[in-house]
Specification:
Helix content is about 50%, strand content about 10%. With about 375 residues, it is α+β, with helices and mostly antiparallel strands. It has a domain of about 150 residues: Helicase, Ruva Protein, domain 3, CATH 1.10.8. Strands 6-5-8-7 form a four-stranded antiparallel beta sheet. Strands 1-2 form a two-stranded antiparallel ribbon. A two-stranded antiparallel sheet has the order 3-4.
Length: about 375
């Protein structure tokens, strides 16, 4: 699914406990060239027939040259019936709201981790997480045993994504993904994004065919993410798990399938059983070290530095982690206040494969931990 999530204002003492005790779709960032003329051409094809923005507008998608080429590809590559696909795309509606929501937000205030965290680690969501954990404790234990992913991390992800199934989205996935696949907003990554969504459109049609369902019954976010864990269609096909044993993967109606699928996804993206997730860190007050630690900021979504390399650059762990592990330096900006710094392990960066954001990954860790603590106190 992709993203600017983040949450963290936990006291360092709690953070140390987290590092010691916790062992725990969306969009690839590519570049391309924007084509204004293409947007104007496609926009001209749209004929409004509904006043409800969520319902969309009739756009004659089946008559678009790019859509026709896509249909030909699906026929040749996957054996679809062309007339059936034409009939399908004649029912697809253009979702302008999806276009507007995909446009880059205007530059505003600096990122604020504390404010972001407060949106997710709060009493209502924590209690909903406790209820979810109590209801599906057996499935969570089974997922942890099978995939090595702790229950609290699975609970954290589903809580951040949809508040445990409360906010799964009401857009028809076919409408949203088709709109973005052929008329993505004019941004520097427009061509790459359209290629991504065309791949998701292919996966949507294949998933519906394989599952024997009407693709128009699939509802999700404005980006086409589906169900309790907000999986993109390609992720459902690749990582979805029939964890309730009912014969098919159903992330819309089966929380148990969602639990197994989240655990499987993380396991396939580098999760290591028993490894801690984060260790708190500060930066040396030695001004001669300042430029050295800055070189470790923004170095990708992987743990690739030794503890010796980081400490030599002025990074001071709040609790000494194992020396045989690799780390990444995580910076959580706090607006006008000082940033927080953490050492992230492979497991932290496994979470960033779910959503490419430090804020997101830390919010998952914090929410999951808060739910675990609240559950033990009730």
């Amino acid at each position: 699914m992709k993203s600017t999530p983040g949450l963290h204002t936990v006291a360092q003492l709690c953070a140390i406990a987290l590092a010691i005790c916790v062992s725990p779709n969306l969009l690839a960032q590519q570049s391309g060239s924007a084509k204004t003329s293409a947007a104007k051409t496609s926009a001209a094809k749209i004929r409004k027939v509904s006043s409800n923005a969520d319902d969309g507008e009739f756009a004659n998608f089946a008559e678009w040259k790019e859509v026709s080429a896509f249909i030909d590809q699906m026929v040749e590559k996957h054996g679809f019936d062309r007339s059936e696909l034409v009939a399908t795309f004649n029912q697809v509606r253009y979702i302008d709201r999806a276009i507007q929501l995909m446009k880059p937000a205007p530059a505003s205030k600096p990122k604020n981790w504390a404010a972001y965290r407060a949106r997710f680690v709060e009493p209502v969501r924590i209690q909903a997480g406790v209820d979810f954990w109590n209801t599906y404790a057996d499935a969570l234990s089974r997922a942890e045993a099978q995939y090595g992913v702790p229950a609290e991390i699975i609970v954290g992800i589903i809580g951040v994504e949809t508040v445990y199934g409360r906010n799964v989205g009401n857009f028809r996935v076919m409408d949203a993904i088709t709109t973005l696949a052929f008329d993505y907003p004019n941004t520097p990554t427009r061509e790459a994004r359209m290629a991504f969504f065309r791949g998701e459109l292919e996966s949507t049609l294949l998933y519906a065919k394989e599952s024997g369902i009407d693709p128009f019954t699939l509802l999700g976010s404005y980006a086409g993410a589906i169900g309790w864990p907000q999986f993109m269609p390609s992720s459902i096909r690749q990582y979805g798990v029939d964890f309730d044993g009912k014969g098919r993967v159903d992330l819309r109606n089966s929380p148990v399938d969602a639990i197994g699928s989240v655990a499987h996804y993380l396991a396939e993206h580098g999760w290591k059983t028993g490894m801690p997730i984060v260790f708190p860190a500060t930066l040396s007050t030695d001004t001669s070290a300042e430029n050295r630690w800055q070189a470790f900021i923004g170095q990708g979504l992987e743990a690739k530095y030794s503890l010796d390399e980081l400490t030599a650059a002025g990074v001071v762990p709040g609790v000494v982690p194992p020396n045989d592990m690799r780390f990444g330096l995580i910076d959580l900006q706090n607006g006008q206040d000082p940033s927080e710094y953490w050492l992230g392990t492979d497991n932290f960066f496994a979470i960033t494969q779910y959503n490419r954001s430090f804020f997101y990954a830390m919010s998952v860790v914090d929410l999951g931990r808060a739910v675990r603590v609240a559950r033990t106190q009730q």
